[in-house]
Design brief:
Layout (H helix, E strand, L loop, with lengths): L6 H8 L5 E4 L6 H7 L2 E4 L28
Parallel strand pairs: 1-2
Amino acid sequence: IGSIPLLLTAVLARSNYSITGIDIAPQRYARSIQDLGVKVLSCDVENEILPIPDGQYDAVIFFEILKDWR
């Protein structure tokens, strides 16, 4: 959660982890996301329910997000 600017997302993807990112505006980095071959979903985590089913993932990483919460 907080996938943009793709710093940690890119490292994990290049290390062969299966990545699904969540960011408030992933379209800002659409080309880079496509080049990495990762899926990044759009979600405002302060105001929306996460667009993934419960129990879908083994781990969740919050990155570049806490500084933006109100």
